[in-house]
Write a sequence for this structure.
């Protein structure tokens, strides 16, 4: 048959992470690779009650076709929980926050449109944008996110970018947080040069000691699209997220939503509303924070003990799910992975997260899926793999030198 | 802010039906407009049991991130229930079958690609395709679907079409069914000219007297993408559908799916599997058929009584949810709608369902949402509106003639 693929299909690629995750399904592997919330945090009993209640009192509506915007009371609850004045009419319920990326890509990206992203950035966003064929431009970033001077320079270095995509809180993949000072500067620069911001905030509630600074969107709502998610504070398996969009953009995003899947499951929306409505998140989320903080601490303690003297660098995330590690000079995370898997641990190399030039020494470690004990075993194994590779490299160097002096 | 929309956003439009449905929310209106399954058919108790069971025995997995392909046992159940040999590896679970249309549009449609559709066709498909900017080409159709000679002519009248989109069973909007003879001819013609088929079958299980003939896909699986849905046999509010794709296309569709929403809710997939697994559909679907048949019969009886002598034509759908009606010569369904709404009934004019030249006299009536009593009241009111309009038109004619003879 004459199936002919659209040109954009060539831009769509299988997730590298997905391929890695397949390896990690091997029994015995401790995976620090995936971005899976700890299932210990899923409020199964609360969901069971909510299901029964929704079906009992509202089953016919919950199971019927519904408005593309989302379930009214949930839109109101979302608006009310955000730390700036939000009209519920600007809240669009999405099938996971991933869908928000798909919808805004359809509405804002033409083939070849410049889109600015952090260095590195969330791979899933690059994948969601890819079918619309943007030209992603990597903005230099440090441990606080994008560097403002480079943001301005890149914004002006060609056609006006359609937006800059930022993940200010406990970023995926690095775990870094944008400081208050940086937020002020980014927000001001974006307003001055008329650069729209897409702010993705799936992890913001998962802070350990102090809440992160106010979102960028709170500082300039008309210049920002904000994406949020219930995946990390309740459960990802319900596939519910939301976007808050300026009134000028909302109708087109809504049309894109309607064309994409008519609406997100009304049953799930009511379940989440039912679970949330009595302040449940205020009691539940602190338990997630405490758990993830313990696990981050365990990872840091193991790293400090095991990576001593190996020339390894890593950060200390103030929240979220991920820690970012940089291998010793000359060591490549992609080539280290098979050696790590042989020692029964898995991580994600940093390379796929870079839209531009990548740092091959980097890798991402999740501290939320494995237990404290597993984390310790895994970091010990990772250090052993690094030590072994260093020794191999050293031996190769010595051999090369000997060969050199023999010649 | 410099929000700049993508060119494709101009092709995206709010659904006309959606706007009509807003009117129908007025209290007192009997709506024959929407495509809403009767909530009397939703198996609320079975869902309640399934929810409890899934959360009890499998809560942690049901609530976690999951594979983009869908829940394995559900993919197997789908493959097993289809009337041709299907490898579960070719089944992709989607967020409603609407999402299948979005995914295949991304993978198969370039801007300007010719896509063949029936006359008239499902509006939601036109909307799902629109962001990818196809050139939809309307193939002449009769009460059995596309006319084969015109299908071949249109396929050859320009660049090779990417596919023909067909809804052979109880089509939305017309309720018509493609006969066995027509299926044989369409299938053979498509194979001969190498024309891929997208076969959409959300209504196929809702037959009244006899099951419809075998799907087109069963006759040539490598040349077809098949879309199915749980919305009409279980409930739309769970947003679950599926697509069956040739192995050559599956990986790209899967990548599009992953980028669009990572995966469809695993919780819902398990719920549906749990409900289905003991042959529930074999007991449940006949009750839906019986109910909808009674309602179709009621509508036909009312139409026969009320439309006598008005010059109105309508068909007799053998299943599904919709009946197609054609107003007397010279009468326009769009302009009749306000008069009908004044009489507290609503329908959908046929015009938005045409990709090419439209027949302004046509309109769609749903016989599944309103009760038998409401259907009778509604058809009586619709006939009164038509009679009134005929009288007005006649009076205007007489006046014109009088004006003519006076001149």
């Amino acid at each position: 048959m004459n199936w002919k693929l659209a040109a954009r299909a060539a831009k769509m690629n299988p997730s590298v992470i997905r391929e890695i995750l397949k390896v990690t399904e091997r029994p015995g592997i401790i995976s620090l690779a995936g971005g899976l919330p700890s299932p210990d945090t899923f409020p199964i009993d609360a969901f069971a009650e909510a299901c029964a209640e929704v079906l009992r009192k509202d089953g016919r509506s919950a199971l019927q076709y519904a408005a593309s915007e989302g379930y009214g009371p949930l839109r109101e609850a979302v608006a009310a929980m955000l730390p700036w004045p939000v009209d519920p009419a600007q809240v669009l319920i999405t099938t996971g926050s991933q869908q928000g990326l798909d919808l805004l890509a359809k509405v804002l990206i033409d083939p070849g449109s410049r889109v600015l992203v952090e260095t590195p950035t969330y791979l899933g966003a690059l994948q969601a944008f890819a079918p619309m064929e943007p030209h992603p431009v990597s903005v230099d970033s440090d441990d606080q996110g994008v560097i403002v001077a480079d943001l301005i320079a890149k914004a002006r270095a060609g056609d006006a970018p359609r937006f800059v995509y930022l993940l200010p809180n406990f970023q995926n993949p690095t775990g870094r947080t944008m400081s208050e000072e940086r937020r002020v500067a980014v927000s001001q620069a974006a307003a001055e040069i008329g650069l729209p911001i897409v702010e993705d905030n799936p992890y913001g509630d998962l802070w350990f000691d102090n809440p992160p600074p106010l979102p960028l969107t709170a500082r300039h709502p008309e210049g920002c699209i904000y994406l949020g998610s219930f995946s990390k504070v309740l459960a990802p398996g319900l596939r519910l997220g939301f976007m808050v969009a300026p009134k000028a953009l909302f109708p087109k995003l809504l049309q894109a939503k309607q064309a994409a899947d008519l609406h997100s499951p009304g049953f799930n929306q009511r379940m989440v509303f039912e679970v949330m409505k009595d302040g449940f998140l205020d009691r539940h989320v602190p338990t997630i924070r405490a758990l993830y903080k313990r696990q981050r601490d365990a990872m840091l303690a193991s790293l400090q003990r095991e990576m001593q003297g190996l020339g390894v660098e890593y950060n200390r995330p103030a929240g979220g799910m991920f820690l970012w590690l940089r291998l010793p000079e000359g060591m490549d995370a992609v080539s280290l992975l098979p050696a790590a898997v042989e020692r029964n641990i898995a991580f994600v190399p940093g390379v796929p997260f870079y839209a531009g030039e990548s740092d091959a020494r980097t890798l991402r470690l999740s501290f939320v899926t494995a237990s404290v004990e597993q984390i310790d075993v895994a970091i010990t194994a990772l250090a052993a793999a690094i030590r072994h590779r260093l020794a191999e490299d050293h031996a190769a160097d010595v051999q090369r030198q000997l060969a050199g002096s023999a010649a």
Summary: Chain A touches chain B through 87 residues (CB under 8 Å). The first strand of chain A starts at residue 30 and ends at 31. Chain A has 13 helices and 15 strands. Chain A has a mean pLDDT of 95.
